[in-house]
Write a structure and sequence with these properties.
Structural class: alpha/beta
């Protein structure tokens, strides 16, 4: 069953009429609904195109969080062959919010990692809704070390509301773990490509996104804090989340203008949740192009390019 967002109600009504017509036709095979269904489907496509062409930042946040949007596990199965998972941080334990391992991307050996939110209640609890503990970022550092040792490109997929803010995570050094992952990312001498596939919030996202190339899906969001968190701090009320989203410039389009990302991956009409396979393959094409470009650089040049990229951020805004 398709889950409709609040702003998609007119679309839901039209698609509901199509479903009703088809049900009537099943009951009465003599009914000819072809023309009417075709007319309604054309109207639906036009309405979806019109609606998604003018999404507000808050509406983009809702799309980025859509429960049917493809998650890291979907990208893993769609793009990576022979995946061998890496578990544990060799210090405390295993964190299921960050999945990591080795595999092949279009025949090329790579190190791959990403936030996994889960697709149902059980898997969401298992993966802690994609909110990583310190162990997840220390596992990422383990993967980065392996990638550098064996000369493997790193591919990451970012989708998190933020690192887990619980007492246990703080006691085990959440901030230090994210900082170590960020430091290791900056010093990698292999190609590193990150893609924001849904939410990219706070240091929880940055810990696995300090890459040579950072891409965002068309309706993904990326920011230092969630709109709700920002609203709670500035206005003492999460009810102001829509205003916060607009002020924060969290959309892919805004971030590309600010030169904080390197490119936008177009989503299927109506968002990645309407055609997950198409979205996954579009990301794959973008990663393949970036790997080809970065493959010509030496290890020292890869490290230098990445460091200069982040040092340059914000200079034009001062």
């Amino acid at each position: 069953m398709h889950v409709y967002l609040d702003f998609e109600r007119p679309i839901a009504e039209l698609e509901g009429k199509i479903v009703e017509l088809r049900q009537l036709a099943e009951q009465d095979p003599s009914m000819n609904i072809t023309d009417e269904v075709g007319r309604l489907q054309a109207k639906v496509s036009s309405l979806i195109k019109e609606t998604y062409a003018k999404l507000s930042p808050w509406q983009k946040a809702l799309v980025a969080r859509h429960p049917a949007r493809p998650h890291f596990s979907d990208y893993l199965s769609g793009l990576i062959d022979e995946f061998t998972p890496l578990a544990g941080d060799r210090l405390f334990g295993e964190d299921q919010a960050v999945m990591a391992g080795l595999g092949r991307f279009r025949g090329q050996a790579v190190a791959v990692l990403g936030h996994e939110k889960g697709n149902d209640t059980q898997s969401r609890l298992k993966h802690n809704f994609g909110m990583a503990m310190p162990e997840g970022y220390r596992k990422a550092v383990r993967l980065f070390d392996l990638a550098e040792r064996f000369g493997l490109p790193v591919i990451s997929f970012v989708d998190t509301a933020g690192a887990y803010p619980g007492v246990g995570a703080e006691e085990r050094g959440q901030a230090e773990a994210i900082a170590r992952a960020t430091e290791k990312s900056l010093n990698l001498k292999v190609p590193f490509i990150a893609t924001i596939i849904g939410e990219g919030m706070s240091g929880g996202a940055l810990g696995i996104a300090v890459a040579n190339r950072v891409f965002m899906l068309e309706h993904a969001i990326y920011a230092v804090i969630s709109p709700e968190g920002c609203a709670s701090i500035l206005w003492r009320s999460s009810d102001k989340a829509q205003e916060a989203a607009a002020a924060m410039r969290i959309s892919a389009q805004d971030l590309l203008d600010l030169k904080l990302i390197d490119g936008i991956v177009a989503e299927p009409l109506g968002g990645a949740h309407r055609a997950p396979d198409d979205a996954i393959q579009a990301v794959g094409e973008t990663i393949a192009r970036a790997l080809g470009e970065l493959g010509t650089l030496s290890p020292a040049a890869l490290k230098q390019q990445r460091r200069e990229k982040y040092l340059a951020m914000g200079r034009d805004l001062v």
